[in-house]
Fold:
Amino acid sequence: MRDLSLHLLDIIQNSITAKATAIFVLISADRKKDRLLIRIQDNGIGMNEFLRLKVTDPFVTTRTTRKVGLGIPLLKASAKLAGGDLTVDSEEGKGTTITVDFQISNIDRLPLGDISETMVSLIASEPEIRFVIELENGIHCIRLDTLEVKEKLGEVPITEYQVLMWIRDFIGEGVKKIFGGVLHEIDS
Amino acid sequence: MKSIAELEAIRNKAREQVSLRSEEDQYRIVVGMATCGIAAGARPVMNAFLEELKKRNINNVSVTMTGCIGVCRLEPIAEVISADGKKVTYVKLTPEKARRIVAEHIVNGRVCVDYTIGATESAK
Structure:
């Protein structure tokens, strides 16, 4: 994967497959500690302990077309390369939380990429799912909750193009405000 | 900074248009968005579909994602499914190809044969 936003899109597909109705995404950068953390939490069907322990193995997957599953292993590899790691917490029937962290200044840390495009693609495709995204840098925090967006919109669907573009701009501005000057690839 | 209050204005603007629309989707476009698709560039392809449909003011086509379609080496893949259930599978897509598919297939009803899985696979 070229950047973290693509990894994010990939990992959230797992939540969708797990029948999640609400998906929470947190991206948090701590400049002092030089850590970037991404957490994806869903209320899907979860995993049993056996699968949870094995899921970072590329030769374990729930899909039936083939015997490899690379989403989580690739993200774990990206984290390990950049002085971080990935952990999986899950409970059957409750949901799954994937937490991954990176050393911000590590030369091999992937850039954040276009988080807003990832979120817009997901919302356009799965409008029924509640997505919450939180961006924070220890001082400021920006949050978008599609449930709130839907309340404001009333009868207008969230998949309306103007709405999607508003969401894209909202998150795009948020990324600049929160991570500009913190993640060096983003200008504030 | 954008605020959530701006959605009110969008709501008022969009409300009239929404009520005019018929419910039935004429086509469904399904983009493969598993690890293989994403790594091959499926996200910009999906956004190109959304953009081009909007540009042409087409509202009765839905664009969604699916998991792995099973031929990862041909990603990005999209299936265009018409209301009567006919399915065309396009492979090795780019945003430019996606725009052409909207213009040719969705608008004019002509399948872009050269992008289909059949044409790509038999060319070898």
The first helix of chain B runs from residue 6 to 20. The two ends of chain B are 53 Å apart (CA to CA). The mean pLDDT of chain B is 91. The domain at 23-122 of chain B is CATH 3.40.30.10 (Glutaredoxin).
